[in-house]
Each structure stands twice: as structure tokens, then as C-alpha cells.
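Quick one - inputs below.
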Amino acid sequence: DIQMTQSPSSLSASVGDRVTITCRASQSIARYLNWYQHKPGRAPKVLIYAASSLQSGVPLRFSGSGSGTDFTLTISRLQPEDFATYYCQQSYTTPFTFGPGTRVEIK
Amino acid sequence: EVHLVESGGGLVKPGGSLRLSCAASGLIFSDTYMSWVRQAPGKGLEWVGRISSTTDGATTDYAVPIEGRFTISRDDSKDTVYLQMNSLDSDDTGVYYCTREAGRRWQSWGQGTLVTVSS
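Output:
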């Protein structure tokens, strides 16, 4: 199985901050990498697919980059509704493993 | 708009079985790949498995901890996907989501159904 790691596991940030989350795959997954936002009691929501493509309806402050084994999710100016847990997921091959998540908290 | 509704969760004893259902609407179900994803209490998301579209043979893939205990199936006449769970243990406790796979991303999700394995 492909193992996914994320860093940091949690972070505290203020509204307006720039936030960067990294994700690493245990082997090359080309650009088959998705990012999800998950809030308690809600269904997960896809933000970025294919490493850098913005899902329809997702605000432009979210962006993704990377290929191979190293990927990044950036929130350019953090908004109150962005406080959540973020997961990367590889869609290169089954099983489609998720990273352990990064919790973004209010500073 | 795609709408997914899970049902069938509840309390089950260790070693027991449970069948979850996910009813879909707003899509051509027989052409759709469907997955199950779960989240244990205080833990992250875990992909459970998927079933391909009927067009592509309705083949299944599972996560390693799942293989042999859980079975995913579909009934296109009811626009429904199922997750049959056997030999349940406490590690299987959590919220189970069904989700539609399209373009190698999981765009539509149900609200989730809670499974609790406890004596």
C-alpha cells in the first residue's frame, strides 16, 4: 500500500494568515493527489484534485501544488470558515489511502 | 444535484454483522463508481473499498484491514450500494460515508451513518 504522511499534524493560525500543509507519498503517485476539508458532523468536501485543480465552487484562496511524492495545500488568507481538518488522499492506485490529517485551529 | 443517503447503522455486538445501504439520486447510477469511507472516533478518514460501475464490471477493491470481512455490492435497479460487514470488532466503530467517485476524486458524499461495535 502507498503510505501518506502530512505535516504538521495540527497548527494554530489567525484569520488572514497564509497556511501551508504538506503531504508526502511513500512512492511516486504522479499528480493523483486530492485534498479534502472535513468539519465535525459534516461530510468531507473535495477542495483540490489532480494535485492542483480547484474543485468547482471552492474559493480561489485554496491552491495545491506538487507531483511525484511531495505535495502542498496552501490557503492564501485564512477565513473563519476554514478552521477544519484537511486530508490528502492518493488516487493513483487502490487502496486509495488518506493522510492522517492536519487540524487547523484558531489562534 | 447528486444526493446520497446512508442507512443501516446501529449498535452491534463484537463478531456480529451489519449491512449498510446508500441510496443515490441525481446521477446515472449504473455508470458510477461508489466507495465507502469511514472515520473512527477521534481518528482520520479511512478508505474502506469501492465498487466499479456496472459498465466496468462492478468489480470491487478493499483496504487491507477490510478484505475478507466486508463486501460491497450494488443494485442498479434501486440506485443503491451496500456494505455488508461481518466479523465486526471494536476497531470497526465509526461513521461510515458512501461517496461517489468521478474523475479520480470523491465529489459527492452522504451524511454518514454511525456504526458502534460494543458488547
